[in-house]
Description:
- The protein has helices spanning about 1-30, 30-80, 90-170, 175-185, 210-215; strands spanning about 195, 200, 230-235.
- By secondary structure, the chain is mainly alpha-helical.
- It has two domains: about 30-175, Orthogonal Bundle (Helix Hairpins); about 175-235, no CATH class.
- Strand 1 (about 195) and strand 2 form a beta hairpin.
- Helix 1 (about 1-30) packs antiparallel against helix 3 and helix 1 (about 1-30) crosses helix 4 (about 175-185).
- The N and C termini lie close together (about 10 Å).
- The site of zinc ion has 9 residues, from loops.
- Zinc ion (ZN) binds near residues 201, 227 and 230.
Amino acid sequence: MQLQLLWELQELDLSIKNLQVKIEAAFGLSGVNEAKVALEELEDDYSKKENQFKADRKKLKQMELEEQAIADQSKELKENMYGGKVTNVKELEQMHRRLDHLADNKKLLEENIIDLMESVETLEEELANVADKIKQAQDELNEKERELEKKKLQYNQELGQLQAQREELVKKIEKKYLDKYLILVQKHHGKALARVNDDICSGCRVFISSALKGHLYNPSAMVYCENCGRLLVKLE
Ligand SMILES: [Zn+2]
């Protein structure tokens, strides 16, 4: 009877150990970490693109102001040239050259503005695209975190049940049996007891001597495997 209870205790302890391993591994297996890394990468990407977008927009504004300044200068120059105030030929020629130079600058600036506008537009599309991906990644992370929480809750409930069962079981076991079990469990990594099947110790797969065999039929005797030292049980 006591050996039967010890066997049940060992089964229970192995289940508890197994569950604790599962609890420890739950976070690693949940994919939460990978989902976090993926989200962070997208957020970094978004932040870089956003900075570029803001810088380009600022530059664009500056270029547009520059363009306006050139236009103002040209207008003023033309008014002076054709207003009849300047009559000196050399001075007029100089003003012409200056006007041509301003026109060249304006043309170049306009080309640059168009290029930059295109790049700003592309960036804007990319930002919207990354924002969509961030939303998806966030949803995925939330989902994985929810699953992990659910799993942890379930495992902890199971663990609580097993521990309650263990407490009840331990109450029925006599101290000398329990003490022996606790010592052997340390020594044999959780497997203090071994069943005997066909005269073989299931702990180490070695035959039980005929001297020991006889004792196995005495239910209150504690019989140990001569090879591995485990407490032998012969369960019906
Ligand atoms: Zn053995």
